[in-house]
Each structure stands twice: as C-alpha cells, then as structure tokens.
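Practice problem: predict the structure.
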Amino acid sequence: MRRMASIRKYIDIGANLTDEMYQGVYHASKKHEPDLDRVLERSWANGMYKMIITGGSSIDSKKAIDLSYTDLDILKQNKDDIVGGVVHSFDGPQDSLEKILELGMYIGINGCSLRTKENLEVVRKIPQDRLMIETDCPWCEVKPTHPGYTHVVTKFPAVKKEKYSIDSGNQVKGRNEPVNIVQVLEILAAVRKENIDELAEAIFNNTNKLFFNNK
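Answer:
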C-alpha cells in the first residue's frame, strides 16, 4: 500500500490490518461499524508511504520474539546464508542487540519497544543505518505510562470504543493505528538527540533498501 510522497515519509513494517478491531469487533463483541478505510485515510494523509501488512495475534508476536532470541546462535551459524532481515518489535537488552547487529540484521522499534527506561537506553545504541520503525497496530501503542511518552508531540483525539463514531475523526482509545508511527519517531529522535527529519529520512531509506530495493 502506498500514497504520494510527502515531506516526511513513513513505512510501517508491521501493521496488523486484518485484525477484527478494524471491523469494529472486540473480544467477539461488535462495538462500531468497520472503519479500516478511515484508519487508512488518516495514515495516508499524515505521511504514510507504504505498509507491510502482517497478521496473527499479540500472543503469536510475543512467541516469535522469544523464539528469535533463542535462535540467535542458529542464525549465527548460518550467517553466510542470511541475505537480510529485521527483528520485529525488539525490546531486548543490549547484549541481544549486539548479537543481532553482528548478523547484519535491522532492528524494528514500536511502542512495545519503548516501555521501560532500560528500553530507552538500548534504542540509543542502535546504529542509525540499522533502524526501522513500526506500529504493530492495533497493539503496541505508546501509552502515557511509558517513560518516553513525555517526548510525544503529535497526539490524536481518542474515545472509548462504545462512544466511537467512524465519521468523528477520533481514534478508538486503546487501539493503535498506523498514523501513530510518528510517536515512535518522536521518542526515538528525542532520546537519541537526533534531528527528527534526518532520522525519518534515514529510517525510510533503510526500509526501502531492505524490502523495496529496485521497486
């Protein structure tokens, strides 16, 4: 999925747009009309250029993350056969980061990657040319309880799902959207003390290089 280029362009490397929340269904209960088209309109209007659509569940994602840590030795043994990749939703310690970087892999950061002060320390150490961002929506939003939330500049109005109207322009409280990727960027730029536009361009180029080279 893509739109015309804007001043600051984003590629979300993890958007679970097939989730039932975007059909208005939460825990098998219908709360509002399907609104995926509105969710996409918001993202395109705010600089989203492309998305990598993923599926599954938050539980499956957590299992995949845990498995990736245990499989680092296997990956290392087969390093010559690896042509490139990214560790999705990284929230590990510095030693795991270093092992992943040694394999030439990229690091994907979302709201779940920024939940603790230790997380913020680790993301400072990711080389700019190995960094990517994602939302993992509808999960992994940046929450007010997260230490990096104080660095969030761009905020969108949100209401409880029971009061949500698809034509209101609001978001559903507690449901992440691709447009919120800007918040991940804002936190990263602040804690890394980097120019946000230069960082955005570097991340965009990293993602294009790995996933869309020659596209």
